[in-house]
Design goal:
Number of strands: 7
Distance between the termini: 15 Å
Strand order of the largest sheet: 3-2-1-4-7-6-5
Number of domains: 1
Number of helices: 9
CATH class: Alpha Beta
Largest sheet: 7 strands, mixed
CATH superfamily: Class II aldolase/adducin N-terminal domain
Radius of gyration: 18 Å
Shape: globular
Oligomer: single chain
Strand content: 5-15%
Helix content: 40-55%
Length: 251
């Protein structure tokens, strides 16, 4: 058996490949943060077992086989030789322990989402089609108190009781996006950063903004969520590009 075949015998191989592709493309977009920030994906029905990137490995080097398989209910995770980043364990572990509806979680400090998170009013309003996608889908944590250890993980998880809310704007910190799988979550992450950029640049003009009526924003958000096949196709196309380039993400 070849090394490639051995790797592909790892549990949850298709999920590993999708998540590794998301890491690679996030780095390409410049939305990564050195060797920090983390993505996770639940792989059991209860949502408590999850894949996550290894500690302090650059997004550009993450592969499907390098992803950690962790159990949110097993505190011995931090005693492993390949123990995860402690802040990632605290934040993502709490999410997967308490919020099984959020199968995938992607946390970044991308520029425009973080600018938004630093405003006194960190809510993203519906000023265009992209921002309307997040109408009534956001919650904001306003109690940043340092690195994301256990207290922040539990606090953030407590904000996510409404399954309709899939954006956590982490005040003075960054953003965390949730979804049912990698494709949906990455698509939301991509569009949230785009929408935040549009909003911040619109504010920079100093001109009055034209806000969409709530009913129009709500209808647009619903239409985008139910649009057939778009999230899956987005990730599929990104993987096809990586494959054409000879990327090692799926190794």
């Amino acid at each position: 058996m070849t090394v490639t075949e051995m790797r592909r015998n790892l549990d949850h191989w298709p999920e590993r490949v999708d998540l590794a592709a998301a890491f690679r493309w996030t780095e390409r977009l410049g939305m990564h943060e050195a060797v920090a920030n983390h993505f996770s994906l639940a792989v059991n029905p209860e949502g408590t077992q999850f894949l996550m990137n290894p500690n302090q490995v650059h997004f550009r080097r993450i592969t499907a086989s390098s992803l950690l398989l962790l159990d949110a209910n097993d505190p011995r995770a931090m005693d492993r030789p390949d123990a995860p980043d402690p802040t990632a364990w605290a934040l993502h572990g709490a999410i997967h322990r308490h919020c099984p509806q959020h199968r995938c979680a992607m946390h970044v400090h991308s520029i425009f989402a973080t600018v938004l998170a630093s405003l006194e009013n960190s809510h993203l309003p519906p000023i265009d089609q992209n921002s309307a996608m997040f109408h009534d889908r956001q919650v904001i944590d306003t109690h940043y108190g340092g690195l994301a250890f256990e207290e922040e993980g539990e606090r953030c998880a407590a904000l996510l009781t409404d399954p309709k809310k899939f954006v956590l704007i982490m005040g003075n910190h960054g953003v965390m996006i949730f979804g049912r799988d990698v494709a949906e979550t990455f698509n939301r992450l991509y569009y949230f950063e785009r929408a935040a950029e549009t909003y911040i640049r619109a504010l920079q003009t100093g001109q009055p903004l034209r806000f969409l009526p709530p009913a129009v924003a709500a209808r647009t958000a619903d239409e985008i969520e139910s649009y057939p096949g778009q999230t899956e196709r987005h990730l599929s196309e990104l993987k096809a590009i990586l494959d054409e380039e000879g990327s090692t993400y799926a190794s």
